[in-house]
What we know:
By secondary structure, this protein is α/β, with parallel strands linked by helices. It has 3 helices and 7 strands. Strand 4 and strand 5 form a beta hairpin.
Amino acid sequence: MEPTADHSATRAKRPSPPQPPVRLSLALHKAVPGGFDGAWWPYSHNLADELPVLVQAMDGVGSITRVILGIERWPDIPHRVAVGGQFVSAGWFASGHEQNVIVLCSYHEGFRTLLVIPPTTAADTAAWLMNTPVPADGSRTASELLAIETACREAVPVDDPL
Length: 162
């Protein structure tokens, strides 16, 4: 008979590494009718990893049951994402619609619309976007805000010839 090893100790569940803090800024819910309710800067384009952290951070605004986001920014959008003991349904905007937005839906609190800052955005750019007030009339789309910030960063000062 061959000896066997007891691997039960090595199979014990190891604690998962701590999640980085969610990068989120929110306006008061009723403060921005028709505009953005805030901005979210995820760490990656992996919705299964990013969404639970966002939804848990949004817990104070009601139970999020569904999200809708731009399919061009998220390569793999599962139909359902586990968040704690529940599932959040996910849908997407088709190409041609605003892609830098996520809509979080709650049965009790309605919905919130967030500007999604691409994960590869430089920290100073993301900070500017997260702290820039958005017109309450919704006159700036997420893509326009990102384009404004990019244009400002790429602008080269011209020396005054006088």
